[in-house]
Write a structure and sequence with these properties.
Layout (H helix, E strand, L loop, with lengths): L1 E2 L12 E2 L1 E5 L2 E4 L4 E3 L3 H4 L8 H13 L11 H12 L3 H4 L3 E5 L2 H18 L7 E5 L8 H6 L3 H4 L11 E2 L19 H12 L5 E6 L16 H11 L3 E5 L23 E4 L11 E5 L1 H9 L14 H16 L2 H16 L8 E7 L2 E6 L15 H11 L5 E4 L8 E5 L7 H18 L3
Parallel strand pairs: 7-8, 7-9, 9-10, 10-11
Antiparallel strand pairs: 1-2, 3-4, 4-5, 6-12, 11-12, 13-14, 14-16, 15-16
Helix pairs in contact: 2-11, 3-11, 5-10, 8-9, 12-14, 13-14
This protein binds pyridoxal-5'-phosphate.
């Protein structure tokens, strides 16, 4: 039975089924209906639902010591997870890097904003505080994170509360903001960062933040080769730090531990969340590279920031157990073949007149619906196509993650697909099947 009791829910006009159990790629509700979790619950669940070892590891830690404040103690779980994350990060994190644990992605973004500001203070550059970002991006829902997000709809109600530190063009080939085509575009969207810096007060820029593959806002938009390295180069040249928001793309989701590793770049900070504990506990982290750590070590030695629940022992125990599982089951290696398999199957959707694009990397995939395929014109927002597709897929017992606004912040309909890495070929085949039948219902002949 669907319900909406007690909770200040995300949408008062909707009712929600009650989830009672998870098994692998499936979520079961209280009336026994089984749903294929093709979205990984917003690209969170990587190892699948209901893995007993994780709960046992959390219970074990909780029975030993459930909480110790980080101003007084460290715990073995947190230190161990920090070292393990640094070991799979790019080379500039491995020796001398450190990890700041949070309770989720938005807290990681907040932490990074303050961290880059203090980094510049520690390095004697008192004026650098502006964190630049891109239009059509999402970095979290707290006010600092919203300030750097370029998601029009999510920012709109709070505009008076959030500063605009500067947004450059998105990197989105399917709807190129410069109406150009790669490679003739010569990466105009990356050079927009330099143009922005040249056009403003360069001296107060502290950092640039980007999602290596843009998740919710653009539906798994992958940058062309050369984009991420050009951005990294511009950051270095202008003395600003590069923050890779890997809250959605990190921990294996795109086929490598961190998506930046596809292009061999070394950001200064990497943000993780979601997959770092695969949904078993609220956990996020900021991976801090050696160069940034050194500035704090040489300087004040203390970061003016903190959360009561940072580096929580039970949450970091969950993180360690999830990483054990990813490693023992070789799940990092499953993403590329499972992603290819799903993407190949999804490409059959492209024969439909309203499926404009199938895109993504690894198991972070997007399907965009357009009104006119030849012009890539979106549907009017009021038609609510992404939500209609989600509902029709739900009727087929397949869970997807719909968003509107990929074209201009308001128009543009896509769904995100990000199933657990454990998805089998048989389960994968159910996703395009559900989408074909959803399309037939949303767009009757
Ligand atoms: C790229 C990115 N950054 C930040 C966040 C915010 O993370 P959280 O919802 O855990 O606060 C999200 C969440 O969707 C995200 O996708």
């Amino acid at each position: 039975m669907a319900t909406n009791r007690g909770l200040f829910s995300r949408n008062f006009k909707k009712t929600f089924p009650i989830a009672v159990r998870g098994e692998g790629c499936w979520i079961i509700d209280e009336s026994g209906r089984r749903f294929l979790d093709a979205s990984g619950q917003a690209a969170v669940v990587s190892i699948g639902h209901g893995v007993q070892e994780i709960g046992l590891a959390m219970a074990e830690q909780s029975s030993q010591i459930a909480f110790a404040h980080t101003s007084q103690f460290h715990t073995a779980q947190a230190e161990k997870l920090a070292e393990r994350l640094l070991a799979i990060a790019p080379p500039n994190f491995r020796k001398g890097g450190r990890v700041y644990f949070t309770s989720g992605g938005s807290e990681a973004t907040e932490t990074a904003i303050k961290l880059v500001c203090q980094y510049h203070l520690e390095s004697g550059q008192k004026n650098r505080y502006r964190v630049l970002s891109r239009r059509q991006s999402y970095h979290g829902s707290t006010l600092g994170a919203m300030s750097v997000s370029g998601n029009v709809a999510r920012r709109a109600p709070y505009e008076p509360l959030i500063p605009d530190w500067g947004h450059i063009a998105p990197c989105f080939c399917y709807h190129c903001p410069f109406e150009k085509t790669f490679p003739q575009c010569e990466l105009a969207c990356a050079d927009d960062l330099q143009t922005h810096l040249d056009g403003g007060k360069k001296e107060d820029a502290a950092a640039f933040i980007l999602e290596p593959v843009v998740g919710a806002t653009l539906g798994a938009a992958v940058p062309p080769d050369g984009y991420v390295s050009r951005i990294a180069e511009i950051c270095r040249k202008n003395g600003i730090l590069l923050i890779a928001d890997e809250i959605m793309t990190g921990m294996g989701r795109t086929g490598k531990p961190f998506a930046v590793q596809h292009w061999g770049i070394e950001p200064d900070l990497i943000l993780v969340g979601k997959g770092v504990a695969s949904g078993y506990a609220p956990l996020g982290a900021v991976l801090v590279s050696a160069r940034v750590v050194e500035a704090f070590e040489r300087g004040s030695g203390a970061f003016m920031h903190g959360f009561t629940y940072q580096a929580h022992p039970v949450c970091t125990a969950a993180g360690n157990a999830v990483l054990d599982y990813l490693e023992s089951q070789k799940l990092f290696d499953r993403v590329a073949p499972a992603g290819k398999n799903l993407r190949d199957a999804l490409s059959s959707l492209l024969s439909h007149p309203h499926v404009g694009d199938v895109r993504g990397l690894g198991l972070l995939l997007g399907v965009e619906f357009v009104k006119d395929k030849s012009t890539r014109e979106p549907f009017p927002k009021s038609e609510n196509i992404a939500e209609k597709i989600r509902q029709a897929c739900l009727d087929e017992h397949v869970l997807t993650y719909p968003t509107q606004g990929c074209v201009d912040g308001l128009r543009g309909d896509h769904i995100l697909l990000a199933p657990p890495f454990t998805i089998s070929p048989e389960e994968s085949a159910l996703i395009p099947r559900a989408l074909h039948s959803a399309l037939a219902r949303v767009f009757p002949a």
